[in-house]
Amino acid sequence: MRDIETELDHPKSKGLGEQAIDLEDDEALEGIGLAAQKEAVLLQTALSRIADGTYGTCQNCGKRISDARLRAVLYTMLCKDCARAAQSDAA
Fold first, then answer.
1. Contact 57, 66 (CB under 8 A)
2. Distance from chain centroid for Cα 62
3. What is the pLDDT of residues 15-53, one digit of tens each?
4. 4-90 to CATH, choices 3.20.20.70, 3.30.70.20, 3.30.2310.20, 1.20.120.910
5. What is the pTM of this model?
6. At residue 62, what are phi and psi to the nearest 5 degrees?
7. Exposed, middle or buried: residue 79 (CB in 10 Å: 0-12, 13-18, 19+)?
C-alpha cells in the first residue's frame, strides 16, 4: 500500500531528459563561476600592478602596453606582440 502523504512530499523523479538538462545547467553555472573567479583574480593583480607602478608595462618584454589595449583588456599583462606570440606558442 502506498503512502499518499509521502508521494505528495516527494514527487516522482525527473525523467532522464530533465536530469540531463539539469546537469548541463549545473556545468554551465560552474563554468561561469570559475570564469568570474579567474577574472576577479586578474583584476586584483591589475590593481596590485597599479599600486606598485608596473601597470601598463608588458610583463614579458618590458615595453609600454598601448592605451587602446589596456582599455580593451584592463587586466592585460602583455603587449599586443607578446600576447600574439604567446597565443601562437600555445597553438
1. no
2. 27
3. 777 766 777 777 776 777 788 889 999 999 999 999 999
4. 1.20.120.910
5. 0.59
6. 85, 0
7. buried
